[in-house]
Structure formats: structure tokens, C-alpha cells
Design a protein that fits this description.
The protein is mostly helical and about 575 residues long. About 60% of the residues lie in helices and about 5% in strands. It has 24 helices and five strands. The protein has a five-stranded mixed β-sheet, sandwiched between helices. Helix 9 packs parallel to helix 17, helix 10 runs antiparallel to helix 11 and helix 20 crosses helix 21. The longest helix is centred in the middle third of the chain and has 32 residues.
Length: about 575
């Protein structure tokens, strides 16, 4: 009890020191003065605006249904990390770092119930929090800059979040790539803006790097790209001119790097203990003579932003990585005039570091596609959009952090310069982030009803809540069925796990299969059921050929909506129909 009292006393002294107002002598006014800053007002306004915007959002994209929305939902249902054979999450999704899933989980728990809208809101709030340090120089007396900050931060996640891939629109998507790019840009910005003059700034940089390491596997490499910025920029000491001994600077830098490395090592240890392997097996399979020209053509000419403005101006090859990179470089050079001489030198170095980061990221992307995707580039727009998002984030945050006085002196000289600035903002918003369309929930309601029916049938069979039940979802060979993903996501509410991954659901070989091929199909099905411990099988779609090729297994019935219980009789597997779910 004495230790607790001591902690409370220390906490009280810290609060008194931080929230006291030396000019008024009061505490309440000091607290409000520190809380009601323009930056905090911009942050809270955007939080409310995004909350209103995401109401009614549904989850119906493949990767969202099997990972980015499924992970926090599985955490919410089970209250534990999704590792091992008993996890609700797909086995080959368990190696993804749980950073954003945990953040979404805590947001959902705070709300008291699980709703898709909170998932989208959590993504937005995370990005806004990362950008908060750039708002420290906002002042109430210059409302035009506050309005510009409000607008820029609102559209910032949208620049490369509307690539058109599977309806990826900002504030409508749970793909992690945009958040990853935002976090990388913020981490490099922190290293450049602070120069690690104190332990607080070092801790803030460590938090940003740790977020990178826990968002996605590639985030560890991105954190390693952000560290050279701190290495080079600490050479000049603090921007304020405060001299810091070299030993202390390096000590703080090492402390900033230690936390993300520790978290990454801990996560790898947990994966090893649970026997979880990396979800992307690396093996060099692409022919460089064929792949390299395609890769660099995509790099220079393939659109990464789906913009109505660009489409009206001619469509392809306008919003490519090359053009957006040139735009970021131009904006970065223009912002040099907003800084003091000391900060201008650091900003130039920052642009050079950003260029090196882009080259390193492109090299890493090449190795990933060459060794991990068999020479294919299925998610190129999202992946290259990550570094593009980091570029634009770095430029926007540098502009906001420059300070009202410098910006006003450089831009707000007269009516013409103000008009030019307003037009530039309008053009920036109009060209990129017009993707606010809501994706229709084609199967969400139907999948929820089907999942409820399956759960009811399973509970009747199990004489109670059928939790930790594994079900095999079957649909025709060669179909990557969205309904399968919707059903998997809906079944999480009942603790029922779809054990088989979507590309391991082929139980028919096609027309004209011979006896040997049919025997292989049957054996593959049995092996999958045994491997995943499936106790039920459900036909998501009609599989007419299954009736012809495997009649003895399903008694001639393989129609959509048929549910079977998998049992063992006389040493062989038997499928007992328990009716349409």
C-alpha cells in the first residue's frame, strides 16, 4: 500500500508540474490551455468527422475478411492472440504481426461491442495520432492555416488509398498499406524534426518505429530505413542549437532502436513457440530476363492512383510512381524556403535520405515479387503506394511543422499568393482523393444469416455452444469465392473456424476425370480433414461434379446449403447429412 501511495504522490507532482499555469497560478486554466490547442482541435474534429463518415461501412474484401477485419474479430471473440492449431484465424495468416489488430481490438472493447465501423475508425485515428507532432506550431490567430491542416490531414490517407484495387478507398478500406506508408513518413519526419534532443523525443521516435515493426512484416525493413535518418540527422544536434554530448546522442538513438528490435524478436519467439511459419515462402522462381523489363515498366508507367481527374485527362501513365515521386520532390524543394537556415540544411539532407529509402524499397519490392510471388505482381499498386504514401506524408508534415510565421511570410504576402495557395490545395485534393464511394455489401447479410443457421445446427449436434468447431467450406474447383470469405468472417461470431484456406477447397477434378484422378481428389479431401481436424463440411456452392465423382461420400447430394457432420465408423470417414443449414 505504501508503494501505491508513493506512486500516486509522484503522479500528482508530475501532473502539477505539467498542468500548472505559471502566468495565472491556476490549474484548470493551465490544463485547458494545454488541451485546447489548435492541433488538438484539428485532431478531435477529424476524429468526429471520420466517425460520422464510416457509419454503415461493411467488410467485404478478400484480405479484409480473412485477415485485417478477421484478426481483431477473432481477438474479440477469444480474448487471446491467434497462434496455434486452436486459433480461429487461418493458419497461413497467423504470422502477420498483430499491431493493428490489437489496436482495433482495444477500440472495439472500449466501445462495448464489435462493429465494423469502429475498425475503420481505428485505422483513421491511428494515422491521425501519428501526424500530431506536426501540429505543434499551429496558432489560434491564424485560422487559415488551421483550416489547411484540417483539410490536408483529412485527405492525407486518401492520396494512395484509392488505387481502385478491390475498391480500396480511403476510410472504406482495412488494408494496412496506407497506414504503413503514413507511419513510415511520420517516423522519418520525427527523426528529421527533432534530431533526438531529449529522451521524450527519442521515446516518440521509438514508438513510431515500433508501430512499423508491428504493423506488417515489411514494417521491420521500413523501420530499418527510417533509422539512417536519425543516424545522420543527430550529427547536427538539436534544431534549437542546444549542444548535446555525442555519447548521449548515440545512447538515445540506440534506445530508440532497441524497442522495435525487442518487439520484433519477441514476436518471432512467439511464432516459433506456436510452430507458425512465414506466410510467404521465398524461393527464386522468376526469370530476370523476362521479369526485370516488366517490373521497371510497371514502376514507371503503371497507375497507382485511381483518380477521376486523371482518367478524364487521358487515363493511364499519369498517376504512376514516377510522376508522384516527381511531384513529391518538387513540393519538397519548394518547402525549403519555409525553413530557417539551420532547418533548411536538415531538410535537404532529409530529401536525400528519402531518395535512398525509395531506392531501397524498390529493391526490396523487386526481391519480394521475384522470390515470393513467382514473378507476378498481383498487389503492385498497393505495395508501391506504400512508399509513395510515405513520400507525400513527409512533405505534408514538413509543411505543417514549418510554423505559422515562416509560412505566412513566404506564402501569405498578398491576395495573389493566397489565391495561388488556395488553388494549389484545391488541385491537390481534386486530383487524388476523390474515392469516397461506399462498397456494396453483396453477401454480408446473406452470409450472416447462413452462419447463424450453421451455428444453430452445430449447437444442436453438440448439445451446447459449438465453439472450437472446425468446418470445411466446399465450393467448385477454380473459384475464389467471396461468399466463402464472408461466411468464414461471419462464423467467427460463434467461435466456429473454417479450417481450410480458400485455395484448398477443390473436391472435384472437372469433366472426364478418370478413376485415378478421382481417387486422388478423395484422398486430398480426407487428408485435409484429418490435418485440420474438421468435424463438419458445408457446401457453399453447388458442385454438380461432386455428385458424379464422389457419390459414396455425400449420398448423391452436394447442393449449396447442405451441411454434413464428419464421423468415423469402422475405421473409415463417413459424412452424415444433418440437413440444409
Amino acid at each position: 500500500m505504501g508503494l501505491l501511495d508513493g506512486d500516486c504522490a509522484v503522479l500528482w507532482l508530475l501532473c502539477r508540474r505539467y498542468f500548472s499555469n505559471s502566468t495565472t497560478g491556476g490549474y484548470r486554466s493551465g490544463f485547458l490551455a494545454r488541451l485546447c490547442t489548435p492541433g488538438m482541435a484539428v485532431f478531435l474534429t477529424l476524429c468526429v468527422a471520420v466517425w460520422l463518415l464510416v457509419q454503415g461501412n461493411t467488410v467485404n474484401a478478400w484480405d479484409e475478411l480473412r485477415l485485417w477485419a478477421a484478426y481483431p474479430k477473432a481477438l474479440y471473440v477469444t480474448e487471446r492472440l491467434q497462434l496455434g492449431a486452436d486459433a480461429l484465424l487461418y493458419a497461413n495468416m497467423q504470422s502477420y504481426p498483430p499491431g493493428m489488430a490489437l489496436f482495433c481490438y482495444f477500440i472495439e472493447k472500449a466501445g462495448g461491442s464489435f462493429t465494423p465501423a469502429r475498425l475503420y475508425w481505428a485505422y483513421a485515428v491511428f494515422g491521425l495520432m501519428m501526424a500530431l507532432p506536426a501540429l505543434k506550431n499551429l496558432r489560434w490567430k491564424q485560422l487559415w492555416m488551421n483550416a489547411a491542416a484540417l483539410l490536408l490531414l483529412f485527405v492525407l490517407p486518401m492520396f494512395f488509398g484509392n488505387s481502385g484495387f478491390d475498391g480500396l478507398y480511403a476510410y472504406r478500406s482495412l488494408y494496412i498499406d496506407v497506414v504503413l506508408g503514413l507511419t513510415l513518413g511520420c517516423a522519418v519526419f520525427l527523426a528529421a524534426a527533432e534530431g533526438l534532443p531529449g529522451w521524450f523525443e527519442s521515446a516518440r521516435l521509438a514508438a513510431a518505429l515500433s508501430a512499423l515493426a508491428l504493423l506488417k512484416d515489411s514494417g521491420v525493413l521500413l523501420a530499418a530505413l527510417a533509422l539512417p535518418a536519425a543516424l545522420l540527422l543527430t550529427k547536427d544536434g538539436a534544431p534549437s542549437g542546444k549542444r548535446v554530448r555525442r555519447g548521449r546522442r548515440w545512447l538515445r538513438l540506440l534506445a530508440a532502436a532497441a524497442l522495435p528490435l525487442l518487439l520484433f524478436g519477441l514476436w518471432q519467439l512467439l511464432l516459433g513457440m506456436a510452430g507458425v511459419k512465414n506466410h510467404i515462402p521465398l524461393s527464386a522462381t522468376a526469370d530476370d530476363a523476362i521479369f526485370l523489363p516488366e517490373f521497371f515498366t510497371a514502376l514507371l508507367k503503371r497507375d497507382i492512383v485511381s483518380s477521376p481527374v486523371f482518367a478524364n485527362w487521358g487515363g493511364p501513365e499519369l498517376a504512376t510512381y514516377a510522376t508522384t515521386g516527381a511531384l513529391c520532390l518538387g513540393l519538397g524543394l519548394l518547402t525549403l524556403g519555409l525553413f530557417t537556415e539551420e532547418r533548411r540544411r536538415r531538410q535537404k539532407l532529409l530529401l536525400l535520405i528519402a531518395g535512398g529509402m525509395n531506392l531501397a524499397y524498390i529493391a526490396g519490392l523487386y526481391l519480394l515479387f521475384r522470390n515470393g510471388f513467382d514473378g507476378n505482381m498481383p498487389s503492385y499498386a498497393r505495395y508501391i503506394g506504400t512508399i509513395a504514401q510515405a513520400n507525400i506524408t513527409l512533405i505534408v508534415l514538413s509543411f505543417l511543422e514549418a510554423g505559422q510565421t515562416r509560412v505566412e511570410a513566404a506564402i501569405m504576402k498578398n491576395e495573389w499568393s493566397r489565391l495561388a495557395f488556395a488553388c494549389a490545395l484545391a488541385l491537390l485534393v481534386a486530383v487524388f482523393p476523390l474515392g469516397l464511394d461506399r462498397r456494396p455489401a453483396k453477401y454480408a447479410e446473406g452470409a450472416a444469416q447462413t452462419a447463424a443457421q450453421i451455428a444453430e445446427a452445430v449447437n444442436a449436434e453438440e448439445n451446447g455452444p459449438g465453439e472450437n468447431v472446425r468446418i470445411y467450406l466446399a465450393f467448385p474447383r477454380g473459384e475464389t469465392d467471396v461468399l466463402h470469405h464472408e461466411l468464414y468472417y461471419a462464423l467467427l461470431d460463434y467461435g466456429i473456424r473454417a479450417a481450410n484456406y480458400y485455395d484448398n477447397t477443390c473436391i472435384n477434378r472437372g469433366q472426364g476425370a478418370n478413376a485415378g484422378q478421382i481417387a486422388q481428389i478423395r484422398q486430398k479431401l480426407m487428408d485435409t480433414i484429418a490435418e485440420h481436424g474438421c468435424t463438419y463440411l458445408y457446401f457453399v456452392r453447388d458442385i454438380p461434379l461432386a455428385k458424379e465423382q464422389l457419390p459414396e461420400l455425400f449420398a448423391g447430394s452436394a447442393s449449396a446449403g447442405t451441411l454434413y457432420r464428419i464421423e468415423t465408423e469402422g475405421g473409415r470417414t463417413v459424412f452424415r447429412q444433418i440437413g440444409p443449414a
